[in-house]
Design a protein that fits this description.
alpha/beta, Glutaredoxin, 3 helices, 7 strands
Length: 103
Amino acid sequence: MRIEVLTIPGCPNGPVLTQRLATVLGDGSEIPVVQRSVTDPVEAARRGMHGSPTLLIDGRDPFAAPDTPPSLSCRLYRAPDGSQQGAPSVEDLRRVLHAANRD
C-alpha cells in the first residue's frame, strides 16, 4: 500500500491528517507515509489533489466524490457526527485503510 498526503504550503490541517494517520497505522508501521507540498494547479491535477489536505491510497483519493475537480484550496471533511473538520476522522481513516487492505 502506498499512502501520500498532499498539502498546500502552510495548510494547518496537513499535520492533523498526519497525526491521525499515525494513530491509525500505529507505532512500527511498515507503511510509509509520503508528504508532498503542491503549489501548482497542473501538479494538483496530475496528482489527483482535491484540496488540502488530500489523502491518496495507491494513487486514489478515497474521500473525493466522482467528478470532483482538482484544487489547491483548503478542504473540509464530514465527520461521523455530521460536523465538518479539516481532516478525515480516525474512524474514517480506519475504514478506508481497511478497505484498501482488502483490495
